[in-house]
Amino acid sequence: MLQYSLLVLLSMSNVAPDAKIAPQVTVEHGVTRVDPYAWMQQRGHPEVIAHLNHENDYAKGMTEHLQPLREQLYEEYLSRLVQDDTTVPWLGEDGWTYWSVTEKGKDYSTLMRSQEGTQQVVLDENQLAEGHEYFSVTNIAVSPDGALVAWLQDTTGAEHATLMIRDIATGEQVDAAIENVAAFNLAWLDAETLYYLKYDQTNRPDRVYRHDIGTSTAEDELVFHEPDALFWTGVSRLTDGAGVIIPVGSSMTSEVLFIPTTGADAEPKSVLPRVSGVEYDVDHHGGSFLVRINDDGDNFRLVEVPDDSLGTVGRELVAHDPEVYLTGVKAFQDAVVLSERRGGYTALEIMDPNTEMRQVVPVPEEVSTVNVSGGNEVFDASFVRVTYMSPVTPTQTVDVDFSDLSWTVRKKREVPGWDPTKYQVTRVLIPARDGAMVPVSITHLADMKLDGTSPMLLYGYGAYGSSMNPYFSSTRPSLVDRGVVFAVAHVRGGGEMGRHWYDTGKFHDKPNTFTDFIDVAEGLVERGWADPNRIAIEGGSAGGMLIGAVLNMRPDLWRVAHAAVPFVDVVNTMLDPTIPLTVGEYEEWGNPTDPDYYMTMLSYSPYDNVAPREYPAILVTAGLNDPRVQYWEPTKWVARLRDFNTSDNPVLQRTNMGAGHGGASGRYGRYREIAWEGAFILDQLNATELVTAD
User: Fold this and answer.
1) Of residues 328, 339, 407, the one with CA closest to residue 369
2) d(CA 53, CA 304)
3) Distance (Å, rounded) from C-alpha 394 to C-alpha 387?
4) Can you give the three-state secondary structure of 235-290, one letter per residue?
5) Which residue among 100, 605, 661, 665 is the active-site one?
6) Does the annotation count 626 as an active-site position?
7) Cβ–Cβ < 8 Å for 403, 382
8) What span, in angstroms and rounded, lies between the C-alpha atoms of 189 and 283?
9) Whether pLDDT at 17 is above 80
10) Do residues 264 and 210 touch, judged by C-beta distance below 8 A?
């Protein structure tokens, strides 16, 4: 077959030279692989950039007829958006009241605060974003005394940030900007001491630095360095003000280091020693660390480690429960909030720290999500602030009282024209081929008939133990109102059904993720939920790997697929430890230098398993600056799909040339992207017309 790189588009005038398209031949564990598109990994090469631009032009030309539908979808999204909005105020530990404001026509928010009649702008992200194609503030931290604000801003999507510090009252910059900072963690120890992270050459946050306000950044001290390439570092401030913690972890092992508020110059001390295969995280309460740890069972337990006995497990507060997955702990003066998963759903439990009595917080809907939210900065608060939502209940901000678990709804997200009675959420269990029961959350029109005639969009992820919780989306009704059944397959590899659900969908058991997804689709068709000829599938990142794998395994089962920033060149990436994140991923997928892991990866790697088949219509989206899934993975995959596809269905690639893993940064730009993707899917499903009145 002619290589796609020679045929990419009829309009392509400058073809990559022969030296660039020479196949890369590798031999590992006795297996010979040929990669005809390795030349695409030359980041920044003019011919690579030209190739991506031509792909974008080709996708634009092939979908030009969908522009009216895209505009219609975009306007529908905006019609459900309150463009002038304000968050529920929260009290900071500095005594100021904070809130965030978004305004019509502006992509970003402004953080405000007030105290005793004085109102101040803390940070206007719209002002900061001027002149940038991409802009994201990834962390904001106000000093404990309320005088300074520090923030991290990313202007490329590559997750390399600039650390800025400003005097809130005057608006003046404090100290020089610090470049090339890891994009997500900041922590104040006190009013004059700030901690931040830096990356190694593979984008692994491996170093913690301390900046003393008023000094040159050249004087910043390296506080901690993690040399093991499997591990990452973080940094955060404890709510009770006891100090700063430095979490260090891999996918299977963790450790937490502690710096007390009274000891900025002290060497960080380990709360518990690092033990291979044991994970833990902490909060702090009354002179002790509360430690969530899986040393006695995969669903974790809660133990106490007194400050004066660091390194030794003390009394047990919550025993391991094989039916309840303990996922987090948040300490307050008079209560400890336990985040859990029960029966596949999120749950919260309130524990009295003195009596150890526990009560589960009741929720109004089974298929829903409740989580501890931001705005819990006051240690002696009498309530915990949570967010609650379901696929038919817009997000609510709720204060749950510790004394009686009563709810005070502080804000309901306003969605103009929203009528929840039009929709219904159903949960079903579909048996996988090995007998495991896979939960599926389904959002559909309330008057839908199970007659097997409805188009369906099936979404999946299934990796890293991450759970796809039922959530509210203001864009999803534009699909459902056109008769599309939206289903989420909670496949193995995620954490929905407990830690074992994750463990049985990784390493050599990774294929369970893909077969679960296929079995769910077939089971839903058998039960009348979907027209077997009109099934769309969607997933992103590791979920994009899922999409790629099931396209190879059962291309006949799908009408259209959307793979967003897909991790599809699994073997090549995992064999290259210089690529960001690769080494840390050994504990998720395995190390391919081991022949057994290599053969398992090779069995499902989407890029390596493309073959002559009738593939359905496929849309692949990517970000040029993506540090998590390099742009060349989807690019090479699309080229190979075109080489082998024996159908006439389109295979399109759309790359955001100024963004990273998350796509466009502003809310309006992101809506444009969702409309583009949604129009393609709806067109392929022949479901472009509204079937219900607004």
Assistant:
1) 339
2) 56
3) 10
4) CEECCCCCEEEEEEECCCCEEEEEEECCCCCCCCEECCCCCCCCCEEEEEECCEEE
5) 661
6) yes
7) yes
8) 15
9) no
10) yes
CB 272 within 8 A of CB 256: yes
Q: How far is CA 565 from the centre of its chain?
A: 12
Residue 1 has what pLDDT? 31
Burial of residue 273, with CB atoms counted within 10 A of its CB: 0-12 exposed, 13-18 middle, 19 or more buried = exposed
Distance CA 475, CA 608 (A): 34
Whether the Cβ atoms of residue 77 and residue 478 lie closer than 8 Å to each other = yes
Q: What span, in angstroms and rounded, lies between the C-alpha atoms of 442 and 425?
A: 6
**Tokens for 598?**
């290599």
Q: Give the CA distances from residue 637 to residues 9, 249, 484, in Å, rounded to whole numbers and listed in that order.
A: 16, 32, 28
How far apart are alpha carbons 130 and 122 in whole angstroms?
17
Dist CA 325 CA 340 (whole Å)? 5
User: Position of tokens 């692989």?
Assistant: 33
Q: How far is CA 546 from the centre of its chain?
A: 15
Active site residue 541: yes
| Long-range contacts (CB closer than 8 Å, 24 or more residues apart) made by 130-135 | 133/658, 134/625, 134/658, 134/659, 134/660, 134/664, 134/665, 135/108, 135/665, 135/666
pLDDT confidence tier of residue 692, bands split at 50, 70 and 90: low
Bridge partner residues of 562 (DSSP):
538, 619
Is residue 178 within 8 Å of residue 163, measured between CB atoms? yes
What is the SS3 assignment for 6? helix
Q: In this model, does residue 126 exceed pLDDT 80?
A: yes
Per-residue pLDDT tens digits for 306-343 = 999 999 999 999 999 999 999 999 999 999 999 999 99
3-state secondary structure of 55: helix
Burial letters 633-644, b for 16+ CB under 10 A, else e: bbbbbbbbbbbe
Q: For residue 369, what is the enclosing H or E element?
A: strand 369-372
- Contact criterion met (CB below 8 Å) for 181 and 166: no
Determine which one of 541, 562, 608, 665 is catalytic.
541
> Looking at this protein, which amino acid is placed at residue 43?
R
Q: Count how many Cα atoms sit within 13 Å of the Cα of residue 512 in the half-sphere of its side chain.
A: 26
Q: How far apart are CA 65 and CA 50, in angstroms?
A: 24
Token pair belonging to 520: 């769910």
Q: What is the pLDDT of residues 143-171, one digit of tens each?
A: 999 999 999 999 999 999 999 999 999 99
What is the rounded distance in angstroms from the CA atom of residue 684 to the CA atom of residue 503?
Answer: 36
Question: What six digits make up the tokens of 566?
Answer: 């897909």
Cα torsion for 426, 432, 437, 442, to the nearest 10°?
A: -10
Q: How far is residue 672's CA from residue 675's CA, in Å, rounded to a whole number?
A: 5
Query: What is the full DSSP assignment across 567-619?
Result: ---HHHHHT-TTSTTTGGGHHHH--TTSHHHHHHHHHH-TGGG--SB---EEE
pTM, entire model:
0.94
Contact 92, 98 (CB under 8 A): yes
**Strand, coil or helix: 206:** strand
Tell me how far apart the alpha carbons of residues 191 and 254 are, in angstroms, rounded to a whole number.
29
Per the residue annotation, which of 250, 288, 626, 665 is the catalytic one?
626
What is the C-alpha R_g of the chain?
25
Alpha-carbon span 217 to 211, nearest angstrom: 7
Among residues 143, 221, 137, 234, which one has the least CA distance to residue 189?
143
**C-beta separation of 320 from 299 below 8 A:** yes
Q: Please state the rounded mean pLDDT for residues 247-268.
A: 94
Dihedrals phi, psi of 122, to nearest 5 degrees: -85, -50
